[in-house]
Amino acid sequence: MRALVAALVFLLPALMAGPVYSQNTENAQRSALMVVDYDALLSASEYGRSIIRGIEAQNVALSNENRQIETRLEAEELALTEERETLSAEAFREKAGEFDAKVVALRRQQDEKAQNLARLRDTEQQRFYEEVFPLISQVAARHGIEVVLNKGLVLMSLEGVDRTTEVIDLIDSTLLPASDNDNR
């Protein structure tokens, strides 16, 4: 029994390690699988960055609008506070209630705009990946790849199985308008 356990202790790691250490880049390039960094497709391709820039521009515009509203409301609040001394308690309560209702309505309106923008971002990302999927398939077919994995889910891969750069180049050459391609 001890001999069997000892043999397993020494033999099992050697059997398991053999294939891992014998792989090289040449074998990886003939692999039936490839990895693609899906996040990099969006963030590193010019086409993806153009989508991100469009969303970011809308985010900046909404932030600017929020600051303008905040400045305007602060001025109204200050004016109401100064006016308090000249108003009866009932008149002040009425004006303060109107102001509070206005603040709540504006906050609700701006929150809705932010939620719509978040939905737009998600929709645009989904549309991007739907447009890119056939291009990933095209690269896979070109190399005889049977399995495509998201690099973010892979613990380790050899350089030769990562086709992210190739897919990014195909995205930009296929999906960018011709004028954008000429300016790269």
From TrEMBL:
The keyword Glycosyltransferase does not apply. GO terms for molecular function: unfolded protein binding. It comes from the Bacteria. One of its GO terms (cellular component) is cytosol. Keywords: Coiled coil, Signal. Residues 52-126 form a coiled coil. Residues 1-22 form the signal peptide. InterPro entries: Chaperone_Skp, Skp_dom_sf. GO terms for biological process: protein stabilization. Belongs to the Skp family. This is Outer membrane chaperone Skp.
